[in-house]
Design goal:
Layout: E1 10-14, E2 26-31, E3 34-46, E4 49-55, E5 72-80, H1 84-89, H2 93-135
Antiparallel strand pairs: 1-5, 2-3, 2-5, 3-4
């Protein structure tokens, strides 16, 4: 789909009614275990059944298989540039666990640092209070 949708772009699709699908729309559809995102190039009516002919923006030929409304996962709502890599990383369970552990450790040290800061502030207040009472 380059140059409109690049490899590491994250796309968000929305459900739509069949009547809302038109030529030029970008749709995601299932093909086996894969989800493919292509643009609708033509719509055909064969024996009362509607078929969508799709192709990638960077392809010269139409996709071999026609799709039906039931194949369509959703219509492109918007895309976020270059964040798809992060989304793919978050699918890996080990990476998610590592991120959670790192966040926990950072939070632990921030809490420890804040407690130490509060303790020093209390010591300073006590010291300043003692200085004031010694002057009187």
């Amino acid at each position: 789909m380059e140059p409109n949708i690049n490899v590491n772009d994250l796309i968000i699709t929305k459900n739509c009614k069949e009547s809302q699908i038109a030529v030029g729309d970008v749709v995601s559809f299932k093909r086996g275990d894969n989800v493919i995102t292509h643009r609708i190039d033509r719509i055909s009516n064969e024996g009362g059944k509607i078929y969508y002919l799709t192709k990638g923006d960077n392809n010269y030929m139409l996709d071999e298989e026609k799709i039906t409304y039931n194949d369509i996962e959703g219509k492109l709502a918007f895309k976020v540039n270059k964040i798809g890599k992060v989304a793919m990383l978050l699918k890996n369970e080990k990476i998610v666990i590592a991120i959670i552990v790192i966040l926990f450790i950072v939070n632990y040290y921030n809490c420890k640092r804040n407690k130490e800061k509060i303790r020093r502030q209390e010591q300073r207040r006590k010291f300043e209070k003692n200085l004031e009472t010694d002057k009187l």
